[in-house]
Write a structure and sequence with these properties.
heterodimer; A: about 600 residues; alpha+beta; PH-domain like; seven-stranded antiparallel beta sheet; 14 strands; about 35% helix; B: alpha+beta; eight-stranded antiparallel beta sheet; four-stranded mixed beta sheet; globular
Amino acid sequence: MVGVSSMASASAPKCNSHTSENEPVKSTSQDGVNCDLNETVPRLPGETLITDKEVIYICPFNGPIKGRVYITNYRLYLRSLETDSTLIFDVPLGVISRIEKMGGATSRGENSYGLDITCKDMRNLRFALKQEGHSRRDMFEILTRYAFPLAHSLPLFAFLNEEKFNVDGWMVYNPVEEYRRQGLPNHQWRITFINKCYELCETYPALLVVPYRASDDDLRRVAAFRSRNRIPVLSWIHPENKMVIVRCSQPLVGMSGKRNKDDEKYLDVIRETNRQLSKLTIYDARPSVNAVANKATGGGYESDDAYHNAELFFLDIHNIHVMRESLKKVKDIVYPNVEESHWLSSLESTHWLEHIKLVLTGAIQVADKVSSGKSSVLVHCSDGWDRTAQLTSLAMLMLDSFYRSIEGFEILVQKEWISFGHKFASRIGHGDKNHADADRSPIFLQFVDCVWQMSKQFPTAFEFNERFLITILDHLYSCRFGTFLLNCESAREKQKVTERTVSLWSLINSNKEKFKNPFYTKEINRVLYPVASMRHLELWVNYYIRWNPRIKQQQPNAVEQRYMELLALRDDYIKRLEELQLANSSKVSSASTSPSSPSQMMPHVQTHF
Amino acid sequence: MLGKGVVGGGGGTKTPKPSFVSYVRPEEIHTNEKEVTEKEVTLHLLPGEQLLCEASAVLKYVQEESCQRGVCGRLVCTDFKIAFLGDDEPALDNAETQFKNKIIGENDITLHCVDQIFGVFDEKKKSLFGQLKKYPEKLIIHCKDLRVFHFCLRYTKEEEVKRIVSGIIHHTQAPKLLKRLFLFSYAAAAQSIIATSPKDHTVMFDTLKDWCWELERTKGNVKYKAVSVNEGYRICERLPAYFVVPTPLPEEDVRRFQGHGIPIWCWSCHNGSALLKMSALPKEQDDVILQIHKSFLDGIYKIIHRPPYEIVKTEDLSSNFLSLQEIQTAYSKFKQLFLIDNSTEFWDTDIKWFSLLESSSWLDIIRRCLKKAIEITECLEAQNVNVLLLEENASDLCCLISSLVQVMMDAHCRTKTGFQSLIQKEWVMGGHCFLDRCNHLRQSDKEEVPVFLLFLDCVWQLVHQFPPAFEFTETYLTVLSDSLYIPIFSTFFFNSPHQKDTNMHRRQLSLPLTQPKSSPKRGFFREETDHLIKNLLGKRISKLINSSDELQDNFREFYDNWHSKPTDYHGLLLPHIEGPEIKVWAQRYLRWIPEAQILGGGRVATMSKLIEMMEEVQSLQEKIDERHHSQQRLQAEAPCLLRNSARLSSLFPFALLQRHSSKPILPTSGWKALGDEEDLAKREDEFVDLGDV
């Protein structure tokens, strides 16, 4: 939201909302961008200019605009050549999902010959080019090469990026420290290195927390019964009642309804870690029909007869394909034009908010079970890396205020998503030209949307602001940082991602002020339950419709600005008061030669803090 | 009476699940047990208020978590309100009494606030009116402020049931005489209290001076004059005693058709163009009379078309715009979405929420009003033409559109007194028939159209989009909308100033919230909430200002152009009217629905942070001032009252007492069919056969 406000107050460049950083390019120097204003294109260390071309940008809001486009190995940058418009946009190539040629040699209409670029961040870019001189062919080839480097055996830009920050974002998450913060290991739970070389489970992190009473051999036997060996491991433990959230993949029950004594025993061991007599609650994120259907391919769910001490609930959250189609429909109603007369029913027909509602509802149930001390919870879907990650991380966000701070949230993403093998590379398709890949799906975006919905309902509970969430989403696609690259920890280790790339958290943490919510009030031990009703869920306009200059949400900014003014005023008054007090006390002390010193007066002023 | 009483339990209480205790702190349980003592709750009566009938052993249902429970008590009906007095009403703690509404308690329903009454007979819900043959076992009252009450009469004595049910039906549903309004008995009984006219800067527009002042303020006095031809309502009872017309207009023209066909001034823009309104001449078949009408109007138009007057653009609001019928239909569908009987109904409608909202058309009507106001603003501001609003009586859509235009164009109308003066000028003096439109006398349901509420909702959209542009907040608007049904304030209980003047002998209490601070009885809330009502964000608004230099004849261009510039909160304000920008006024419509409450969240959370910061800054400022003025040492300042935002619900200050537990509310309804995505839904995330291991 700060970003939008700075744009609103800028001297109204017509389309400036096109900058990917959501801010005027000038200020990108703070992000570590070498931005010499005399230079034509801002450049990151390690970024090289490939080509530039004169084009006509066909702006869906303001019509055709003549400009010059610059293509580097990281970005596509456009500067208007028209005097009345200072249009600039700056799109990292990683955002591009598809490049199409429009018009052929015989095209006659004005601006009908050129390129149409589909982006992953809810917009399209359209350029008209001259037919003569192969300028379109050149641009198409260069863009294809650098936007989809994997198809051309080129490295992703993150591996070429030479940015330096004064904070190392890779140091943010240290699993041992995070588990220690949760009070682990304890008498019931131990840290195991059984997966040190990713032999037990290729897509899990090296370090896992498992019940003390389960031996490494037990774990191996359980792994054989869980899809892709993703065994139940601890995600979070309640500091007081010791209820836990455990995550895993589906059991390999299959058509024949196979059972596995070790798995059954293992779940019972988990149940018993807090000496509760109640059953273990299993939340299967899928709709029950899908869970049943999974038996046909060898999967399934925990049946009552096999797991006497567990109670299973389905959360009815749909699969990655449904979510992908839903987001596509959202784009259809918001870009380039916002559906006007039937906005509400169109929005409903996308089902996007309905999906959000179900994910939130599931997470609330998980959080409530654990927080109320009713029972420990085991969460899985099919493989335990999409819906499961959404549910555990959202429930943890509701339960543990630590994750609502900037670093806490980074740790949460790093832990539940990155280390536990959410397949970012497949879901986003970094550098991959196959735009129609069925593996792509906006699961992480959906999670961030849920977080945004929560922050909207609890505007004082999060240390970060909307811009923080949007920045994360922008760099989910940009390929500037290594944070979201590849599918799992083992692959990242092989590619030496932490050594060879920069972390997104370096950018954010070296610039924290920009991402802070001024209203943040730290409240320890407060459980946040959002209201998962359509009455309160909203489309995230500032993200999904941010390219449309007609839709501008300025209202939170104004309140925030006023609050910031007050904060500044307060600090100023405190300073003045201190000065007055100092002056005063020195007068007093010189007059009465009393020993009262300024330091004695100080606590006085600070009573409010 | 609520939440806290759970453990003591009324008749309808389900046995709480064993886990329940974990949501109640132990100390709460103990206080409860002490609280449940035989205690007769006394009925609080206003001056002049009389008890009409009552029934005991009535159970009021309280929605709690996912079950309902009953609270036992007395149901009474006075000539002012229906009230329920719970037997085991727990004492409210300090923080709670502080925010209590002083006139209408949580279980009070003014007679005018009753919308519909239902009886439940053998599980069947039936609308109740007229004489009853059979009396229901359960009474459901839907209120105009969207509260829903359920009273169980099964344990009440038969004759008491008869008395209370027929009493309530009679006093709320039967047609009434104007002089039977509680307003009058209150005024008579409370004379001594209201005698001193409070210091109030709201301009009432009941004197010539007030109109002159307004002309001067808007610099309209060059071309327009205030007239007193209608003093004592000599010419017509529809118009106020004083109003403003173009200077050259002869006074006998006003007399000619009792004020019909006369351009009446509403407001002047900084560039000299004016907003005018005119009530149409009576419909006639006779050609001769029509000819007379035509030549009369020609004469009128000649006057206002000639320089120095700008070109006039006529906006006929009777045709080509909204009809009152549309507004009525839309609102009756819309309000139904909030009159929810139970949790199941809430969640069942949740999935279809957006399409239900859309099918009511209420938001679309708001959008159309805002759009019309922008169009007129464009004419006045950019084209520099006069706009003449035309309507049959010039007292419904004219009031709505002209006041909306003024809120958008005139920053003065965005202050509290400015806004109240605007309501006084355009609605009260403008002759909006509040009595009929609110159906206060229950004389004709057909006439009941929420035009004023529609106006407030339009203003709410503006407040929501541009909070710093207003001195008041949404809470102010919500309280204002409630006061439509409180017959203590005379403002909204007459059809015209003439009717008011002939019926009221002394000046009555007018709009709420304009009372001096020294009389704690009369303000709605204490100072504490006053902060919430008065917007702290609004800086002093000084002048009307800011002309855009471009002259555009196109709405879209005008609109886009304005929105591409940074907003000047003290200048022209144009609302966003795109689909996603028109929202539901949640504070008014959702406040009584427990499922919709966000505990410790909502916008009130940021507002209370703002207020805390304001207080801190203020106290620091005082300290500095003190230091400057005297050398004396300061005592340690008591820390400002910190509101525990975790305890405030998103619907504060309205439904403060509704929920005490922090248990999450879970949707109970299932998933709606995906339609054409069904096949996708059946697919696997990944097409990998896991095989039979």
